[in-house]
């Protein structure tokens, strides 16, 4: 079970509240009928399926119900970052290794009993 | 290779079992082979075996990054059946089923294929319609599949709860009597032994890290953790890692890799005579010859190479198992694990030539390829040896995702294995 930070609710919530919605940043053509078979195949069927960092869409279906994007490592299942839909694809080289622990399961052993530090100020502060 | 037989057992018993040979040899890689197979799962090893046995191509290496049979082959719940909906699927899965019958003799290795029957449960009107459609379509293809009433289902599988007040009432079932199970490890070991005996090199702990191509685009070999190994033909049979390896050759695939979990209970005396699957509640169960209940769960919802999966996934499956078989509610589960399965958009495999000359791919078996192991290896060997597909795997191209000629078992069943 993953722990996922919804960028709209600004809270980490259990995976059960979310639906994965596939690879992110795949642009749908404005004129889909005019797409060549090759381009339609790329858009619809071909997936990068990386072993490493993936950009993917999630939907907080049992929360705010909104779609957002995430960068996650598919080897450790650890989230590097979640960000709002429409925001540009983040530059991975700029993501610090410790960009907000989101998956309890993959926390280093010495931090296992530690609560994740809030990345952003929580409500009331700021 | 010394044949296994009752005489061999007697002879070895007389001399203190000192004469048993290693089942396969573990040579150092040569610099060049006629064919390299990437991945020593059941499908890769079967491919090498049939290349040698049926096509006389013995200068073959099977490269495996871990140990042979340690991927999905050694992690699956071993359900074997061929009652898929579409003609193309019926063709390839039943080709495999025919080979299962007789495989132990062919390999001189007991793969423990047991045609104990696979029963699929219907819990609602929609299930009834779908399963009956399968029964009819299968019969038209000459594949056995029959419809059972709830009472007949319980007669075939006494532990089944068919009470009308059950949370998932059983309103009928389909039964393929030729379906069943086999011993997964023995399948890998038997093919490895048969291939090695015919001269195939099985090289374990040898990870493929690159695919080398000539200036005109042809395959010329692979980079590995043991150095470069040349070959004009390379067959990729790497299940969950197919996208990774095909990327090394510049080919992007219509695949996504997901964790799929299974678990086994403590061993008990024989209580469960057959295989039962329920697509709707997503549970499948059988009892191994060791006595463990073997239970398969669903995939996680996200792409992962972690070979684990979420606890809530197996929990959900156990909820369903306990509802359908109340006698199992107090069983203890001993072990659970995950494998990484490569899923295509239409849930049918790809066994084909690729846009890169000399590069072949056998993948996309997803949650249900163990049953196809002999048939898949058999026609994939043909595809590599002749550089053209066998009629049975000809429909399973990569191009179908461009042309639209999908083999849409996803729509037909929408479920695993
Ligand atoms: C939990 C679970 C339950 C299942 N239940 C069933 C079932 O009941 N019935 C059924 O029919 N199917 C089932 N399946 C599916 C079935 O296990 C697979 O479809 C089948 O075993 C695939 O066989 P394979 O030989 O293609 O892959 P694998 O056995 O996974 O072999 C691929 C091999 O490639 C190797 N490899 C990967 N990358 C590299 C590299 N770079 N270099 C070298 N080697 C590499 C891997 O280490 C691996 O050994 C199940 C799968 C799982 C995970
Ligand atoms: Zn939210």
TrEMBL record, chain A:
GO terms for biological process: tetrahydrofolate metabolic process. It holds the Pfam family SoxD. Transmembrane segments: none annotated. One of its GO terms (molecular function) is sarcosine oxidase activity. Gene3D superfamilies: Folate-binding superfamily. Residues 112-126 have a biased composition (Basic and acidic residues). Residues 90-126 are annotated as: Disordered. Signal peptide: none annotated. This is Sarcosine oxidase subunit delta. It comes from Aminobacter anthyllidis. The lineage of its organism: Bacteria, Pseudomonadati, Pseudomonadota, Alphaproteobacteria, Hyphomicrobiales.
UniProtKB/TrEMBL annotation, chain B:
GO terms for biological process: tetrahydrofolate metabolic process. Keywords: Cytoplasm, FAD, Flavoprotein, FMN, Nucleotide-binding, Oxidoreductase. GO terms for cellular component: cytoplasm. It is found in: Cytoplasm. It is an enzyme of class 1 (oxidoreductase). The keyword Transferase does not apply. It comes from the Bacteria. Belongs to the SoxB family. This is Sarcosine oxidase subunit beta. It comes from Aminobacter aganoensis. The lineage of its organism: Bacteria, Pseudomonadati, Pseudomonadota, Alphaproteobacteria, Hyphomicrobiales.
């Amino acid at each position: 079970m993953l722990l996922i930070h919804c960028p709209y609710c600004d809270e980490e919530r259990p995976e059960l509240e979310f639906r994965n919605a596939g690879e992110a940043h795949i642009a749908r053509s404005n004129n889909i009928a005019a797409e060549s078979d090759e381009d339609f195949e790329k858009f619809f069927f071909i997936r990068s399926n990386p072993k490493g960092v993936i950009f993917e869409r999630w939907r907080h279906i049992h929360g705010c119900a909104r779609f957002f994007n995430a960068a996650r490592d598919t080897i450790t299942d650890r989230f590097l970052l979640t960000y709002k839909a429409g925001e540009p694809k983040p530059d991975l080289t700029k993501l610090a290794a410790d960009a907000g622990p989101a998956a309890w399961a993959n926390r280093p052993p010495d931090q296992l009993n530690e609560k994740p530090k809030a990345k952003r100020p929580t409500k009331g502060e700021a | 290779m010394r044949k296994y037989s009752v005489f061999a057992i007697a002879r070895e018993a007389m001399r203190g079992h000192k004469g048993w040979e290693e089942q396969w040899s573990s040579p150092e890689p040569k610099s060049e082979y006629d064919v390299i197979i990437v991945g020593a799962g059941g499908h890769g090893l079967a491919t090498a075996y049939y290349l040698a046995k049926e096509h006389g191509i013995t200068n073959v290496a099977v490269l495996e990054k871990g140990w042979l049979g340690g991927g999905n082959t050694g992690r699956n719940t071993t359900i074997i059946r061929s009652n898929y909906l579409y003609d193309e699927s019926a063709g390839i899965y039943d080709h495999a089923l025919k080979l299962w019958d007789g495989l132990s003799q062919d390999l001189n290795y007991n793969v423990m294929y047991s045609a104990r029957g696979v029963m699929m449960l219907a819990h609602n009107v929609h299930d009834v319609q779908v399963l009956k459609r399968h029964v009819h379509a299968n019969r038209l293809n000459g594949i056995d599949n029959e419809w059972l009433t709830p009472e007949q289902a319980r007669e075939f599988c006494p532990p089944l709860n068919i009470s009308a007040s059950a949370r998932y009432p059983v309103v009928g079932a389909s039964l393929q009597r030729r379906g069943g199970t086999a011993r997964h490890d023995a399948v890998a070991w038997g093919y490895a032994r048969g291939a090695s005996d015919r001269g195939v090199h099985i090289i374990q702990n040898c990870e493929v890290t690159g695919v080398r191509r000539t200036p005109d685009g042809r395959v010329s070999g692979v980079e590995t953790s043991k150095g470069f190994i040349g070959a004009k033909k390379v067959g990729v049979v790497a299940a969950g890692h197919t996208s990774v390896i095909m990327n090394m050759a510049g080919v992007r695939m219509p695949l996504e890799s997901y964790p799929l979990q299974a678990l086994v209970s403590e061993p008990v005396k024989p209580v469960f005579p057959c295989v039962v699957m329920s697509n709707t509640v997503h549970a499948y169960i059988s009892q191994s010859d060791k006595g463990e209940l073997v239970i398969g769960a669903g995939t996680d919802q996200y792409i992962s190479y972690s070979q684990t999966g979420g606890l809530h996934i197996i929990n959900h499956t156990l909820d369903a198992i306990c509802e359908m078989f109340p006698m199992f509610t107090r069983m203890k589960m001993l072990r659970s694990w995950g494998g990484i399965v490569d899923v295509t958009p239409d849930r049918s495999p790809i066994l084909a030539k690729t846009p890169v000359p000399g590069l072949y791919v056998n993948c996309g078996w997803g949650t249900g390829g163990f049953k196809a192991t002999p048939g898949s290896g058999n026609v994939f060997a043909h595809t590599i040896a002749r550089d053209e597909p066998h009629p049975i795997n000809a429909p399973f191209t990569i191009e179908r995702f461009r042309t639209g000629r999908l083999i849409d078992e996803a729509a037909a069943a929408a479920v695993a294995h």
